[in-house]
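Hey, I'm writing a tutorial for new members on how sequence and structure tokens pair up, and I'd like a real worked example in the thread rather than a made-up one. If someone can provide the structure for the chain below, I'll link this post from the tutorial.
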Amino acid sequence: MSKKNYSLSICLCLATVGSPLLMASEVIESQEIVIKERAGSVDLDLRLTEFLDFAKDLHRQGILDGEILVVRDGQTLLNERSEGIDEEPQFMIGSVSKQFFAVALLKALYESSQCETEDQKVADVKEKLHLPISQFLPEESTIWAGEMPAWAQEVSLHHMLTHTSGILNYTNVEGFRQSNQTDSNKLWFESYRSTSEIIKLISKEPLSFVPGSKYSYCNTGYVIISEVIEVITSVSASQYIQQALFDPLCLSSTINPEQGMWDELKNDPKISRLLAPLKYDPRENLADLYPLLHCEDISVAKGAGSIISTALDLLHWNLSLHKNKTVLPEELYNLFMTPNMDGYGYGIVIENNDSGLLYGHGGGIGSYRTQLLYMPEHDLSIILLSNICYDFDKIEDEFNALLIDLQDTIADEKEREKTAEKIINEKYPMKRGFAILAEELGKVIK
């Protein structure tokens, strides 16, 4: 739990467009709440209605903490923003970025194929996905800084896309939070970091398990994927994703910056609407908000959580990708959406529950929190974006002390942490914004 506060964490969630501009006009013009009845969906309709009422109540209380957008069958059921936000706000979307980079990799492989027919190109992509990453990033690649790890010859792109690589997650290692050598007031992640600096944090560590044998969420794989995209396309990952995805889909408020903290990024006219990351002390008055003390430089999230976007752009992405399927060739889309271990596809979670199929992902970086959800059988998109979260630093010592106290009674580390989290959450319950909204959302998509 202590490390999740600083990492590009995954919040399990769910996640798009004929003409993106036409879709925008249809959505924004329809503000009336309409729950369309359909066979077998009455329970979902009731739960969704309750959720919408809950969200509107949060807005009335002034604790919505960002933006919520709910769209069904082309109609906007709800679009609320925190009080005082007059124009379309931008947010860091954290790990929701992974599906963009997964799609970008598939497109880059497909477009670079020398095969003649579409079927041959798709077959070529599938073959390359299972090659070791050393085939794309050999020993002389700058990412390895002259010391390519042995696992580069074992781990494939498929392993990294599905979090089954066994590579250590760099956001969980101690070095990620260490003091900056040149400025003791800063932590390691608060300065610009090259890809090789990120990989250096974990490159000498052995794999945690045989690639393909287990699932373990790993941001490192997506950092490497961004580097592979650059090798394939001969341009920066930011430039390629802009040209291949953002521009064609008219995602005009979405950008993948290469470096800078939030206050520096706001100087770019394209990111001028980025909301400030804020926190609150769970022990004190929840209405007292203050700036985030330690904020990641976006370079440390490269490929794993580096995209900035808006609710409307994410809606367009959802519909383009899943409904109209204009982003990838059909076979590659099916590959992208194939559930592997723990229901994880390529940068996206696929679930099948009582309400039907559920696609999406969650994300967190700094104080920003995101959930992007799509239910294809109901043509339902739910998008939560927030720039405010509780300040775990205020209770971290108490949490760590609790972990020590539980050592005698709970041997398993994960179970011990889970129990400690439950105790802390009961003592300091979430009472505003994203945390309680996401909890309520869980009742809708069960």
